[in-house]
Amino acid sequence: xxxxxxxxxxxxxxxxxxxxxxxxxxxxxxxxxxxxxxxxxxxxxxxxxxxxxxxxxxxxxxxxxxxxxxxxxxxxxxxxxxxxxxxxxxxxxxxxxxxxxxxxxxxxxxxxxxxxxxxxxxxxxxxxxxxxxxxxxxxxxxxxxxxxxxxxxxxxxxxxxxxxxxxxxxxxxxxxxxxxxxxxxxxxxxxxxxxxxxxxxxxxxxxxxxxxxxxxxxxxxxxxxxxxxxxxxxxxxxxxxxxxxxxxxxxxxxxxxxxxxxxxxxxxxxxxxxxxxxxxxxxxxxxxxxxxxxxxxxxxxxxxxxxxxxxxxxxxxxxxxxxxxxxxxxxxxxxxxxxxxxx
Length: 343
What we know:
- There is one protein chain.
- The chain is α/β, with parallel strands linked by helices.
- The protein folds into 2 domains: 7-86, DNA polymerase, domain 1, CATH 1.10.150; 92-340, Alpha-Beta Barrel (TIM Barrel), CATH 3.20.20.140.
- Helices cover 45% and strands 10% of the residues.
- It has 14 helices and 7 strands.
- It has helices spanning 7-20, 25-39, 45-52, 63-73, 79-86, 92-102, 120-129, 152-169, 192-197, 213-225, 253-262, 280-288, 308-317, 331-340, and strands spanning 105-109, 134-137, 173-181, 200-204, 231-232, 266-270, 292-296.
- It has a 7-stranded parallel sheet with strand order 1-2-3-4-5-6-7.
- α6 (92-102) packs across α13 (308-317).
- The protein is elongated.
- 45% of the residues are buried.
């Protein structure tokens, strides 16, 4: 068994690195307060509390701090500390800029065919002007009638338009796709035949967002197990600003992200300012669970394609590295990854 580490030293190091990276001061204070609390304990008391499961009875120590202290006492470098050390304590903005530089495209884009405001051509030309090599066109599926979701027949017609545009816009590529609704039972809101013809499928929950945690967990895991789904879109469904503000859906994130990793699906970092989904706490869990990530604009208008940096900053703050991000792949590699789900 490894020799125990000093959790006070690890907690202070975490606080230092958070401070150097300009993270919120409340987070820094939480780690410093926890270090001070541990210093006041009798020798061996912290380890005994970990053994008995009473560490969280101490003021200011919640789940994350409990896990960090327990890891240190087991002789392990705490995951939280390891993630911060991996970034070298560099500024989030710098790391986010590097992630943005590595992106080759955007996997979640809407057009006027559903609830976007611009033609496909305008969205594609704007993406090309931003330096993208491709964009995945992901208009909504039929059940989302409020967003003018595409029936199979309309999607067929859209595929024809995309083929014509690709002939004109090459080497830029519009990849075919859909943001398919994940229905209440976890099934996908489009026929398997149509989904199998698309390049990339984003699946999102848009209905019954207040479903019980157990049922929502099963719903999302069922969708992730579907070979046609490639990316789990805005997983909590939360809205953090504006008139549509709403809390996140409840689900067992560890189970859901384990399923994403198991089936090699990507968890979306949705860059829309009113979404910023998933919350950092959950994104860190996804990273620690070994999930792939897609950093997407969810653009509904040309200027919104430039929102990806919001997602890159959040991803960088949570330890996402470029090698984990599917849209740092070129188009052929992205398609190979997506096709592998159906093999």
